[in-house]
From TrEMBL:
Keywords: Aminoacyl-tRNA synthetase, ATP-binding, Cytoplasm, Ligase, Magnesium, Metal-binding, Nucleotide-binding, Protein biosynthesis, RNA-binding, tRNA-binding. Residues 408-484 form the B5 domain. This is Phenylalanine--tRNA ligase beta subunit. SMART domains: B3_4, B5, FDX-ACB. Binds 2 magnesium ions per tetramer. It comes from Paraconexibacter antarcticus. Its main location: cytoplasm. Gene3D superfamilies: 3.30.56.10, Bira Bifunctional Protein, Domain 2, Ferrodoxin-fold anticodon-binding domain, Nucleic acid-binding proteins, Phenylalanyl-trna Synthetase, Chain B, domain 3. Belongs to the phenylalanyl-tRNA synthetase beta subunit family. Type 1 subfamily. Its cofactor is Mg(2+). InterPro entries: aa-tRNA-synth_II/BPL/LPL (IPR045864), B3/B4_tRNA-bd (IPR005146), DNA-bd_dom_put_sf (IPR009061), Fdx_antiC-bd (IPR005121), Fdx_antiC-bd_sf (IPR036690), NA-bd_OB-fold (IPR012340), Phe-tRNA-ligase_IIc_bsu (IPR045060), Phe-tRNA-ligase_IIc_bsu_bact (IPR004532). Mg(2+) binds at residues 462, 468, 471-472. It is an enzyme of class 6 (ligase).
Length: 808
């Protein structure tokens, strides 16, 4: 919300500069996003001028050379292109050195050869209109030349950009923020602008009737009527305030509805009464497929979840969100029906999401305004309709109340002094609490052990219990004034990680310890990711979870894999000259159930890592490090498994189309697939401009590894007897995996490690020689030659099961 300080100062004037005020509001919970400026600057260069003469420019048909008295003795020559400039006028003038609305500094110049020492201004050129209407402003002749223009017109304003939380819709109005500033700074607060209501009494309007068919969605609906309305532009002060607040002025009636909404926080809507068919309005659910063209000139198709305001000819507006074109106020309007209503907040939110339609009115209605606020807005609108349009009230006020009970009672909550101390850790004087709550609009009465506090209607949904009152006192008194304390009873607050969290942290720390950097990717992604990863139709990863109301197409599904985030970060780094990338992410991935009635079939926590570029930093002790590849990723995964004390196995698999088919494997835990490891397919890497070097990657279901990790780690004593170590060469068919060979030998030997692989004519076509470092050991004695011979014979029998044999 944009808050012009000049508007705030109508109701409270804190003795603080804008930056200090912003800080004070932020410290009390009203976040100020930034401080903006609206209008012009260098105000001493803007003055009132008197046009002494206006002669035709000798070399330009559309320009006039004017002599203007600006109050400093000698007239200034100004070249002006406005068609309505004439001698004898009182005008607004900017002199050289003025800072214009667009931030440009005005300089003396020549226009078609004639010197021009300033500018005669139109309203848009000082921020008083959205666009130039075609001529300069003509001011009151009683103004003296040289009078500072800022003393006559609101040409400059400071604006606070506020971030209002959803629980505080009362601060979506200027007076609501003024109340907060009053409580936060102690500055005086003027009476609310709805304190007086000039509208005639009565509960009927001639020729107008209201019917509410959905009372549960419309707690209160009010209308007032006006005749003899004259449509025209709003006064400059009103236009300036709307522009500073970010709203484009239209005409006096529409501007009144926007002005009142920004002031009170309560939306309202003006109908052309003569365009309301039958003079009747019905609040009802839309028909399935019913259509309405809204004020933004878009025809919208509705359904029964949308609430409409309709007349005898059909829908006229989407309730609480936006009006329709058919009954809008126009230049020929002479009778106005002013509607102010209260709506069900969740329904407003669903309606805007479903229609893709956001509005200032809907943003307020969706937050749950109080039914009492409708008459506050009606009172202010009545004052302005009479004052700015010359309107005459027609009848009284039709007020349809559907609230149960009809007159809701205000809740009274006991605020105990002892409870304040217990929650805040320090006492707050009862007088201080009373002063703060009274300033915020609460009713306060003394009680034996504290205060009886009556919650105002505009805070009914936000303050419902004693703890909420204590929060109000604490934030206004200042959280920074509270001492640092330790809770007396710390039972139940050990501040420790759960076993699951410790194991997850251990797995992540392993990767950090090996030089990888953790990233945090979005859970949302775009459907195009599936095509970039070469995932075919019908593949399991195509069963994605689609968002009903995505922020954009690029974030319209939940990610089915964590691979996309890693590739995005690697590509971003590579594009900036950082080709050596080692990163990991620990996060959630999502897949849809094959049955659309089931929401999520698979939502699990994944751990994934990506390495590309040099496998190690360069060193003066050796040459360049080899590139990171499949084995680099596999080594990282095995390090994670080792830290968790789980045993993984690997098996070639081509189920992942984004992996290189000859350099990838599935990861198994107790024969159950828990992930993959491999190199990214070259065509996939090309989509991310990473095809220059191999890209090693793995991803596993971390929770399954954690579930398999032992709760208690036990240790076995190392035997003191020496091992018998031998290097063996094993020849197996080329289709046999080295992992199978190692597993086979490990059934006999105590240690097995591959240190060389050879294929060639010496071992035969289709055969592979795998060199192993093997250690035999016994726990109770030193092995002799006969023991080793027997173990080797047993090893040969095991290899025969794989079609292998010892070489040599």
């Amino acid at each position: 919300m944009r808050l012009p300080l000049s508007w705030l100062h109508d109701y409270t004037v804190p003795d603080l500069d804008p930056r200090a005020l912003a800080t004070r509001l932020a410290m009390t919970g009203t976040e100020v996003d930034r401080i903006d400026h609206h209008g012009v600057d260098a105000l001493d260069r803007f003055v009132v001028g008197k046009v002494l003469s206006a002669e035709q420019h000798p070399d330009a048909d559309r320009l006039r050379v004017c002599m203007v008295d600006v109050g400093d003795g000698e007239p200034s020559q100004i070249v002006c292109g406005a068609p309505n400039v004439a001698a004898g006028q009182t005008v607004a003038v900017s002199l050289p050195g003025a800072i214009m609305v667009d931030g440009q500094k005005l300089k003396a110049s020549k226009l078609r050869g004639q010197p021009s020492n300033g500018m005669i201004l139109a309203d848009a050129e000082v921020g008083l209109a959205a666009e130039r209407a075609g001529g300069i402003m003509v001011l009151d002749d009683a103004l003296a030349a040289g009078t500072p223009l800022g003393d006559v017109l609101p040409i400059s304003d400071t604006v606070l950009e506020l971030e209002i939380t959803p629980n505080r819709p009362d601060c979506l109005g200027v007076y609501g923020v003024a109340r907060e500033a009053h409580a936060a700074t102690g500055a005086d607060l003027a009476p609310p602008p709805w304190a007086t209501d000039p509208h005639p009494a009565g509960d009927t309007i001639p020729g107008v009737s209201i019917t509410v068919e959905v009372p549960e969605l419309n707690p209160r609906f009010t209308v007032r009527a006006y005749e003899n309305v004259t449509i025209g532009p709003s006064p400059l002060w009103l236009q300036q305030r709307l522009l500073a607040a970010g709203q484009r002025p239209r005409n006096n009636v529409v501007d009144i509805t926007n002005y009142v909404m920004f002031l009170t926080g309560q939306p309202l809507h003006a109908f052309d009464l003569d365009r309301v068919a039958g003079g009747s309005l019905t609040i009802r659910a839309a028909g399935d497929g019913e259509k309405l063209t809204t004020l933004d000139d878009i025809e919208r198709t509705l359904d029964p979840d949308v609430v409409l305001i309709a007349d005898a000819d059909g829908p006229t507006s989407i309730a609480g969100v936006m009006g329709g074109q058919r009954s809008e106020v126009h230049d020929g309007t002479t009778r106005v029906l002013m509607e102010v209503a209260n709506w069900d907040g969740p329904n407003m939110n669903r309606t805007m999401a479903k229609l893709g339609l956001r509005s200032e009115a809907g943003a307020r209605n969706e937050k749950g305004l109080a039914p009492e606020q409708v008459m506050e807005a009606q009172a202010v609108a009545s004052q302005l309709m009479v004052e700015l349009t010359g309107a005459t009230p027609l009848g009284g006020t039709i007020d349809v109340v559907n609230w149960i009970p009809p007159a809701p009672e205000l809740q009274t909550i006991r605020l105990r002094d002892a409870r304040v101390v217990a929650l805040l850790g320090a006492p707050v004087a009862r007088e201080t609490s009373s002063r703060i709550l009274t300033a915020l609009g609460f009713g306060v009465a003394e009680a034996d052990d504290g205060l009886d506090v009556t919650v105002p209607a505009f805070r009914r949904r936000d303050v419902t219990r004693e703890a909420d009152l204590i929060e109000e006192v604490a934030r206004l008194n200042g959280f920074d004034t509270l001492p640092s304390t330790v809770q007396e009873n710390r039972t139940g607050f050990p501040g420790r990680l759960t076993p699951q969290q410790r194991l997850r942290r251990r797995a992540e720390d392993v990767l950090v310890g090996r030089g990888l950097h953790e990233i945090a990717g979005w859970s949302f992604t775009q459907p195009a990711l599936l095509d970039r990863l070469r995932i075919p139709e019908g593949h399991r990863m195509r069963q994605v979870v689609e968002l009903e109301n995505p922020m954009s197409e690029a974030q319209s599904i939940l990610r089915p894999t964590i691979v996309g985030s890693l590739l995005d970060v690697a590509s971003h780094n590579a594009a900036r000259g950082m080709g050596d990338v080692a990163i990991f992410e620990s996060g959630t991935v999502y897949l849809q159930d094959e049955d659309p009635a089931q929401p999520l079939a698979d939502e699990h926590h994944a751990l994934a890592a990506l390495v590309t570029g040099a496998a190690a930093p360069p060193s003066w002790r050796g040459g360049a490090a080899p590139p990171a590849d499949f084995f680099s990723a596999k080594g990282l995964l095995e390090a994670v498994a080792g830290a968790l004390r789980v045993t993984l196995s690997f098996r070639p698999c081509a189920d992942w189309p984004f992996l290189h088919p000859g350099r990838s494997a599935e990861v198994l835990l107790d024969s159950q697939r828990v992930g993959f490891v491999g190199e990214v397919h070259p065509s996939v890497a090309a989509h991310w401009d990473l095809e220059a070097r191999p890209v090693g990657i793995f991803a596993v279901r971390l929770q399954q590894l954690i579930d398999a990790a032992p709760e208690v780690i036990t240790y076995e004593d190392l035997t003191s007897y020496p091992a018998v170590r031998q290097d063996l060469a094993v020849v197996v068919p080329g289709t046999v995996a080295a992992a199978d060979v190692v597993a086979c030998v490990a059934k006999v030997a105590d240690e097995v490690r591959v240190f060389d692989v050879y294929t060639g004519s010496q071992v035969g076509e289709g055969r592979t020689s795998i060199a192993l470092h093997v250690a035999f050991r016994a726990k109770d004695r030193t092995l002799g030659e006969e023991d080793v011979t027997r173990l080797r014979a047993k090893l040969v029998k095991q290899l025969a099961l794989l079609g292998g044999e010892l070489r040599g």
